[in-house]
C-alpha cells in the first residue's frame, strides 16, 4: 500500500529570541485517498505547524525542518526550499484556513482570487478561469454565483467566505484538502453547513481530507482516522471508534472528561486537565504529558514512551501499555470508556 | 423565588445613518432569580452580547427597563450611576487577550475597582488582590507581572478576579470560555461554578457552545435576531426543544460520539441569519423555518407559556404552540 501522503518522523524547530522551540518532535502519518484524517490537540501542540511545514508554508528561517521525510504521491516534498507554480503541492493539495476573513485578499474580487489559482497552475486564460470560478462558487452552494464572483470579501458573511475558500482550494481538483480549523470561527449552524459541504465534495471527488481541529464533536462527525497530538508528538492514533471508545492515552481520556456529553441520563461533572502543556523550549525528557497525567509513574518522568501497538492501526505512546507496568492498563482504560 | 434582575421589554436599537436602524435587541423580557444561572444562546449577530451589555448599562436603553433588586435602573447611565452599580453588577468578557490592558500589571488590573469604589488603603488593596488571585487559582506574586506573561486560561482567571473583587451579586459572563482550549474550558467553568456556590452569585451566561450552556445553566434562553424564541429549564430545552430554531440549533451541535454522529441525518439549517437592519413583520425565523406557515409571515408570535401540563415554566415564541 503506498499512501498518497506519507510523513515520517517530522521534526520542526523555530528560532526565537527566547531560544529554540521544538514545535514538532517526530510526527508520522500516512493518508490514503478518499479518507479523512483528523488531527486533534490543544493550541500549541504542533498540529498546524505539522501541516504547514509539509506544505512549505513555514517561513525558513526562523523555522527549520530538522528531520524526517514526507512524500506526496511519491515525490519528496521536504527537500525544496522554494515553492513556485510548478510545485506538485499546488496541483495536488488544496488548503483552507481557520479565519476566512484574514485569509482572503480584501482588494481582489472573490472570483478573481479563485481564478488566479487556475491561471497559475492550469494556464487558463483570464476569461476561462473566471468562468470556472463561477462554477466553483456554485458548487459550494453560494446563491447567485455570477453576481457574488464580482464582489469583494467584505461583502460576504463568514460562512460565505469559508465557502469561497473551499471553492478556491478545489479549483485545481486536489487529491488532498487540508482544512486547518475550518469551522472554529463559525456558528454551530454554519459549521454544520460547511462540514456537510466538505463531506459531499469528498464523496463526489474522492479526495482525502486532513482536518485539524480541537473540537471532538467535529472529529466524531467527520473523521475516519484520528491523530491525537500533545506537546509536538502523536500520543495516540487509530480509527475514530478506537480513539473514542477504546481510548488508550491518558490525554485522550482527559480531553473526553473535560467536555460535557449530551446524555440526559447521567448527571455529569467536568473534570478539567490541571496544569498547562510543557514548555517546548525545553521539552521534558520523558513523557510530555507527565506533569498533568493522573496515572503518571516514576518511569514516565525520564523515559520517553514508545508507541505501543494495540490493535489494527491503533497505537498509543504511554508506558501503561508496557508489559512490565505495575498498573493494569486495561483496567485504567476500561474504567473510562464504558 | 423572587427575581434579582427583571428585564422588561428591553429594546436596543442602533442608528447607523440614512434612516437605517439595527434592531439588536427587540422587546426582550426575562427574569433572573437570585443565585440562578441563565444561559443565553444564539448565533453571532443574534444580540446576545448587546443584551448583556444593555442590562449592565454599558449601552443606553432604547426602550423597556431593567429592575435590579426592586430598583429600576436608569435608561441612560451617567458617571455616578456606573460608580454605584459597578459594585453590584460586573461583567466577564470573552476575549482574555483584548480585555486586559497590556500596560497595567495584574495587580493594578485586579485592584483598580477597589481603588475606585471602596475606601481602602493601598495595603488593603494589595492584600485583597493577593487573596483573590489565590481564589482564582493564581499566585499572589503574579501581581507584578503583565498580562502577556499569562496563557489564555490564566488571563481569563485574571478577568474573573477583576470582576468579582468588588463582591457583585450579578455577573454577566459574555462567552467566557469560547477563546479557550477544551481542557482549560473545564477549569474555568468549574471555577465559576465554585465561586457561584461560595459567593451566591447570579449569572447571565452568554455562550454559543450549547453543551456547555446546558451543563452550566439552570435555565436556557434561546435568542434569534434580537428576540427570545424559547426559555425554559436547561435540560428540558436541550433534550426536548419546542421552537423549530432551537431544534435545528441543537441538531447542528456535533457530539463527541462517532456512533451517534454517523447515525444522525444532516440537520444543517439552510441559509444564514438575516440582517438585523429594518427587520420585517412576522416571525423572524420564518424564512429559514422548515415548519413555516402563512400566519408566521404576518404576525409576530409572542413568547408565551406552552400549554403542557408536565412542562411548567417553558416559554416559546412560535405559532405552532397556540
Which CATH class of chain B?
A: Alpha Beta
Strand content of chain B: 15-25%
Q: Give me the CATH architecture of the largest domain in chain A, please.
A: 3-Layer(aba) Sandwich
**Record field, number of beta strands of chain A:** 12
Indicate the percent of residues in helices of chain A: 25-40%
User: Strands of the largest sheet of chain A, in order across it?
Assistant: 6-7-8-3-9-10-12-11
Helix count from the secondary structure assignment of chain B: 11
Low-confidence stretches of chain B: none
Fraction of residues in β-strands of chain A: 15-25%
Note the main sheet of chain A.
8 strands, mixed
By CATH's scheme, which homologous superfamily of the largest domain in chain A applies? P-loop containing nucleotide triphosphate hydrolases
Strand order of the main beta sheet of chain B, please?
A: 6-7-8-3-9-10-12-11
Question: Which radius of gyration of chain B do the C-alpha atoms yield?
Answer: 21 Å
Write down the overall mean pLDDT of chain B: 87
**Run of helices and strands of chain B:** EEEHEEHEHHHEHEHEEHHHHEE
- How does the helix and strand content of chain A classify structurally? alpha/beta
Oligomeric form: heterodimer
Could you tell me the CATH topology label of chain B: Rossmann fold
> Major β-sheet of chain B, in short?
8 strands, mixed
Weakly predicted, low-confidence segments of chain A: none
* Number of spatially distinct domains of chain B: 1
